[in-house]
Design a protein that fits this description.
This protein has an eight-stranded antiparallel beta sheet, sandwiched between helices. The chain contains five helices and eight strands, in the order ααββββαβββαβα. A hairpin with a 2-residue loop joins β5 and β6 (124-134). It is an alpha+beta fold. It has one domain (6-184): Protein Transport Mog1p, Chain A, CATH 3.40.1000.10.
């Protein structure tokens, strides 16, 4: 699907529908990568970035300017996670993007948020949500979602999403692992506060 008038829309529109599909359908990060059999390995992408060690990198069509880049943790990782990066700069207000996501979780999904906080990252704006919900198999899960607005000097004001899910009982190990992944993403960003 092509977005013909990006200047008047949030570039997050592509990401938004994708994120809703991924999170609401209960697809975890490993299933996300394996289910896209038509997806090809990304050799070129209009971002200067490098994936964390041994992560898989995919796009559906690397030549499509409206594409989304996926990075997923290795299969042997204790808890799966997926990173998605929009292929074109964000047009619109960061606070509105955050408000929409918070509204979606609190009102549309009706989930209580264990964490709903702004992150201060050097050169970037971020927001993190951690919440418990029922997984597709009826099991209790903890979900982690981080939005990061990459600065123009790093990613041309593109939106990055880090997300993952784990059994609710694994929360004490899972959330710190995802925090570590967020800190280790190789876009030249370093956290100023946790």
């Amino acid at each position: 699907m092509k977005y013909s008038n990006v200047q008047r829309q949030f570039s997050a529109a592509i990401m938004w529908s994708l994120f809703v599909m991924a999170m609401c359908s209960g697809i975890n990060a490993q299933e996300f990568g394996e289910s896209g059999s038509q997806r090809v390995r990304a050799e070129k992408f209009p971002l200067s970035l490098s994936a964390p060690t041994q992560w898989e990198v995919f796009t559906s069509n690397p030549d499509d300017p409206d594409e989304v880049l996926f990075l997923q943790t290795p299969k042997e990782a204790p808890y799966p996670a997926t990173v998605s990066v929009s292929a074109h700069p964000v047009q619109g207000d960061w606070d509105e993007i955050v408000r929409r996501q918070s509204y979606f979780l609190l009102v549309h999904e009706g989930v209580p948020l264990a964490t709903n906080e702004e992150l201060r990252l050097r050169g970037a704006k971020g927001h993190k949500w951690v919440f418990n919900d029922i997984g597709p198999g009826g099991e209790s899960k903890v979900y982690y979602r981080l939005y990061l607005l990459l600065p123009a000097s790093v990613g041309g004001k593109r939106l990055l999403l880090l997300q993952g899910a784990a059994p609710a009982g694994s929360s004490p190990e899972f959330v710190p692992q995802l925090n570590d992944i967020a800190r280790s993403l190789s876009w030249g960003l370093q956290t100023e506060t946790d």
